[in-house]
Design a protein that fits this description.
Helix content is about 75%, strand content about 0%. It is built from 12 helices and no strands. Helix 7 runs antiparallel to helix 8.
């Protein structure tokens, strides 16, 4: 009888253990519980990439190329780092980073747009040797101190020795003003609407709002002559 009782007790213990949850099976279910979180992370990443791509396309329309490309070229040509470029432009370092990565599309401050254009002009002068490196450093400090101002600004940056703005400076400020309120495509569309009744005004919008700086300088010289 004792042996029979022991055998029955052993069978009961085996059956009970079979009914208990198995650790291996439980652990196998854990990754499945994390699937929704992983899917959300993937969706967020795709959404951020799509937003950045759209921002870069808008920047191409507004500024001629993505700002990441433009700013990296200025950094290389002028021997800057990202923090120094942000300081010269009058932007915070996080804002500059967002513009470069496409998290933010547009430069909201017209004065910053003008500083970008002045730095582009300076970089071209450094590249062709007309401005030495030492003078470029001084010029960047002047650009940093400038507030952009109106077309009639008489600040030192981009001015002649007599204090009057150069033609290029005036033209770049007019371009910056137009492009700070509308994209090149919108300006061209607006010009088309008034072309029949006001052809000269339409030409002005097209040249300064969507044309090259050299074309705008020629237009300015022709009408100021």
């Amino acid at each position: 009888m004792d042996a029979a009782h022991q055998e029955a007790a052993a069978r009961a213990a085996t059956a009970e253990s079979a009914r208990l949850p198995q650790p291996a099976a439980e652990s196998a279910r854990l990754p499945q519980e994390n699937v929704p979180e992983a899917a959300r992370a993937h969706e967020d990443r795709d959404r951020h990439q799509e937003t950045a791509a759209k921002s870069r396309e808008l920047q191409r329309v507004w500024y001629g190329e993505p700002l990441g490309t433009l700013f990296r070229r200025l950094i290389d040509d002028l021997g800057l780092n990202q923090a120094r470029l942000a300081a010269v432009l009058g932007l915070s370092a996080p804002m500059l980073s967002q513009l470069m990565s496409g998290q933010r599309a547009k430069i909201g401050n017209p004065s910053v747009v003008q500083r970008v254009q002045l730095l582009q002009e300076l970089a071209a002068q450094v590249a062709d040797g007309s401005v030495p490196a030492a003078e470029a450093t001084v010029r960047m400090d002047e650009i940093r101190a400038s507030r952009g101002g109106s077309v009639l600004s008489t600040g030192q940056t981009g001015s002649t020795s007599g204090g009057a703005p150069t033609v290029r400076r005036v033209v770049r400020e007019m371009q910056a003003l137009l492009r700070s309120v509308a994209s090149a495509q919108d300006i061209v569309a607006a010009a088309a609407l008034i072309a029949d009744d006001h052809p000269e005004l339409a030409e002005l919008l097209r040249v300064y709002g969507a044309g090259r700086t050299s074309e705008a300088i020629d237009h300015y010289a022709t009408h100021q002559g």
